[in-house]
Amino acid sequence: MATIEFCDVTKHYPDGTEAVNQLHLRVEDGEFMIFVGPSGCGKSTALRMIAGLEEISSGELLIDGGVVNNLAPKDRDIAMVFQSYALYPHMTVRRNMGFALKLAGAKKDEIARKVAEAAHVLDLTPHLDRKPAQLSGGQRQRVAMGRAIVRDPKVFLMDEPLSNLDAKLRVQMRTEVARIQERLGSTTVYVTHDQTEAMTLGDRVAVMRLGVLQQVGSPKELYARPANLFVAGFIGSPSMNFFSASVEHGRLRLPFGELPTPPGVHATGALVVGLRPEDFEDTGSVERSRAGGIELDVQVSHVESIGSDVYAYFAHAGEAIRSEQLSELSADPGVEQIPGVSDLAVARLHRDSPVRAGETARLWVDGSKLHVFDHATGVNLACA
Question: What 3-state DSSP class applies to 177?
Fold first, then answer.
């Protein structure tokens, strides 16, 4: 195990593209760190710089306290799991897992022992004599992980290892990856485009945009206190709703009413207010105190029932938010629609809610949960 430190690390290419800009971040010994963000944000480039597969343009990268900028990948004591399984089709699981040790000149009994130990951790013992074609996608990915585990490296690197799996297998493998990392206690850096993976797997999550680190913290911290519009829009499913707002006489004026300005927020000028879908409730199905909130009548355009919850989409009178950060997220094909970039918002309601498409619903919104962002900079004013 080891620590990893990015000390103002920058990566730019000859054509002028800056993939990573002055990244300053420390990954603690034994920590599970997730790099997440939309396509082109620099997360995979940062991972490849740890591996030594990308040269560092400026700054220093330290592993276990030593600068590794000029070390070859083979000398960094890291192991990497890629998006593709990259297994040898003619070899058994046993031989695939032990092949790197064989190339390194390890003895046969040592290879056998390490492969057996890794197979036990990964629940692959019954499959050791099978070939990749006889395995499911999830089993193949576990073999790829086993090939890394047998090397007992200081650092594990994973580059979107679950993206080729179907939805059900991804859920299963998320659990497997978390279980394995906890059992091994290894320092792990994991890159993903999927914010659900990031929120369920990581000890901490680093959100990146255009090569710049936007925020790093626990999943709970990112969800409760996003640093800016970009993080707020990226983290959470369904995404946060955004509404144009202004301050008048110490109160926030929104398209559907007024709410008190949150404590500690000193706001002027054009603002954006964010409310998560679960901060709305159907007044007819849930009884609770109405203090600190307001009720509003909305015209429901369509309803999605997922069993445990009901998603009610409704139009509002506010203007669409003109924000570079939110527009960038909306343009990414891997990011779901951002409520507020259009004139639609979404409420996540109790499964017994009687809301119907085409009808008017009366909702209550929790004013204590709102986020206030500066429209020009996108900064969360409560975190400034």
Answer: helix
Question: Position of tokens 């640093």?
Answer: 227
Q: pLDDT value at position 287?
A: 59
Residue 330 and residue 259 in contact, taking contact as beta carbons nearer than 8 Å:
no
191, 44 Cβ separation under 8 angstroms: yes
Do 249 and 118 have their domain in common? no
One domain for residues 312 and 217: no
Whole-number pLDDT of residue 262: 82
Residues in CB range of 213: below 8 A, 6 or more apart: 23, 24, 25, 206, 207
Q: Is residue 197 domain-resident?
A: yes
pLDDT given for residue 83 in this prediction: 77
pLDDT of residue 285: 63
Tokens representing 169 are 């297998």
- Residues of the chain short of pLDDT 50, as ranges, are none
Q: Which residues contact 79 (CB under 8 A, 6 or more apart)?
A: 147, 148, 149, 151, 153, 155, 156, 157
Report the alpha-carbon distance of residue 225 to residue 264 in Å, rounded: 14
**pTM for this structure?**
0.88
Same domain, 210 and 245: no
CATH label of the domain that carries residue 210: 3.40.50.300
Would you call 238 helix, strand, or coil by DSSP? coil
Alpha carbon 336 to chain centroid, angstroms: 13
Note the residue count of the chain. 384
One domain for residues 186 and 257: no
Q: Which two tokens stand for residue 148?
A: 């890394």
- In angstroms, the Cα distances linking 113 to 107, 149, 151 are 10, 12, 12
How far apart are the C-alpha atoms of 333 and 351, rounded to whole Å? 29
Are 243 and 273 spatial neighbours (Cβ–Cβ below 8 Å)? Answer: yes
Q: How far is CA 239 from CA 18, 75, 257, 338, 341, in A?
A: 28, 42, 22, 6, 11
- Residue in 255, 292, 209, 251 with CA at minimum distance from that of residue 19: 209
Identify the domain boundary among 199, 224, 249: 224
CA atoms within 13 A on the CB side of 4: 26
Pairing state between β 155-159 and 78-81: parallel
Q: Which domain holds residue 245?
A: 231-374
Here the CATH number for the domain that contains residue 362 is 2.40.50.140
* Element housing 275 (H / E): strand 271-275
